[in-house]
Amino acid sequence: MSAALRILAALAAGFTFGLGLALSGMLDPARVRGFLDVAGEWDPSLVFVLGGAVTVSGLGYAVSRRLPGPVLDARFDLPGRRRIDAPLLLGAALFGIGWGLSGFCPSPAVAALSTGAVPVVVFVAAMLIGMALHGLLPIAPAKNAPSVRPSA
Questions:
Q1: Rounded-to-integer distance, Cα 132 and Cα 54, Å
Q2: Which positions ≥6 away from 25 have C-beta within 8 Å?
Q3: For the residues of 53-76, what is the DSSP string, one character each?
Q4: Can you give the pLDDT at residue 148?
Q5: Strand partners, 77
Q6: Each residue's pLDDT tens digit, 81-140
Q7: Phi, psi for residue 28 in degrees, rounded to 5
Q8: Which DSSP string do the residues of 71-133 spell out, in sequence order?
Q9: Is this prediction's pTM over 0.85?
Q10: How many CB atoms lie under 10 A from the CB of residue 35?
Q11: Average pLDDT score over residue span 27-36
């Protein structure tokens, strides 16, 4: 497996994903906030985007379960934790609050950097700072270690 081929596959997947985000309106924070405003003037159009994403992801996961191993890697990396606990709920709540206030989640924000809009740059900078600060938190590696399904 060639490193160059892995990089090209990652670039192609990232480009396709970013194009999908742009075409679906996920780069427009006002549209995202309209989708999240279920008590006000709700914009249901992003339900189709989320439905499509869940469908593609579910199909990809189902296919991966039947494969002996990935094409461009030595093994599948799967989450090791399945328990719903306080840190997971807190993280989900913080993510939801940030998404609702800003209209961005990480991938659309990175894709929206292509617009050059100052609010997007500020959001991504704050996100990177938050990620760096999270990296300083003492977290037991055994709890967060991914489960690895060996390839055949």
A1: 29
A2: 31, 32, 45, 46, 49
A3: HHHHHHHHHHHHHHSSS-SSSSEE
A4: 53
A5: 148
A6: 888 999 889 989 988 898 888 888 888 899 999 889 999 999 999 999 988 998 888 865
A7: -100, 105
A8: SSSSEEEE-------HHHHHHHHHHHHHHHHHS--HHHHHHHGGGT-HHHHHHHHHHHHHHHH
A9: no
A10: 21
A11: 88
Alpha carbon 65 to its chain centroid, in Å, reads 21
Structural tokens at position 131: 């990620």
**Cα torsion 2, 4, 6, 8: sign:** negative
> Sign of dihedral through CA atoms 106, 81, 64, 2?
positive
Taking each helix axis as running N to C, give the angle between helix 29-36 and helix 46-66, from 0 to 180 degrees, rounded to the nearest 10: 90
Task: State the Cα angle at 82 between 66 and 80, rounded to 5°.
Answer: 65
Q: How far apart are CA 144 and CA 140, in angstroms?
A: 7
Tell me phi and psi for residue 137, to 5 degrees.
Answer: -70, 140
